[in-house]
Amino acid sequence: MSFSVLGDLNWLAVLVSAIAFFALGGLWYSNLLFGKQWTKAVGWEAPEGEKPPVTLYLMPLITCIVTTIAVAMLAAATGTDTFGEAIVLGLVAGVGLAGMALLVTGFFDPKKPQPMVWVAITSGYHVVGILIISIIMALWQ
To answer: Taking the chain (141 residues) in consecutive chunks of 10 residues, what is each chunk's mean pLDDT?
Structure first.
C-alpha cells in the first residue's frame, strides 16, 4: 500500500462516513445513550450552564476525518467491496486496533474512577463507528 491510494478514494463517501462517525459520537455520548455513564467513568462534569468550547467538537471531528481516511485507505488496499468484507475490516480495525489501544490505555489509567467502564463505552463507540465507515466505504464504490 502507498499513499497514492488517496487519489483513488471516493471522497464523497469519505465525507459522509466521517460525518456519520461524528454524528454517532454525538448520540453515543449524549444522555440518551452513554453520556452520564461516561462522564461518571472519567470523573468529569460539564459546568452547569456554561457553553462548551469549540475545541470540544473540533478535535473529535478531526479524529473522525483522519480515522475515516485511514479506514478508507485500508478498504481500498484490501479490495473491500462487499458487506461481509466490510464487517471483517470493521471488526479487525475496530476491535483489533482501536479497541485494544483503548483497553491498554484504560488498564493503566489510575486517574479515572471507572477505567473499564470508560474502555467499554469508548471502544464500543469506535468499533461501531469503524464498522459504519467500513460498510459505507465498501458499498459506495
So the answer is: 87 97 97 94 82 86 98 96 98 97 93 94 98 97 76
Spatial separation of the C-alpha atoms in residues 100 and 35, rounded to whole Å: 22
Q: Is 88 inside a domain boundary?
A: yes
The cell for 98 is: 482501536
Determine how many CB atoms are found less than 10 A away from the CB of residue 138: 26
Domain count of the chain? 1
Could you identify the residue written with the cell 479524529? 63
Strands (E), 45-115: none
Q: Quick one: which of 75, 92, 77, 59 has its CA closest to 133?
A: 75
Contact residues for 65 (Cβ-Cβ < 8 A; gap 6+): 18
What's the rounded Cα separation, in Å, for the pair 99 and 14?
A: 22
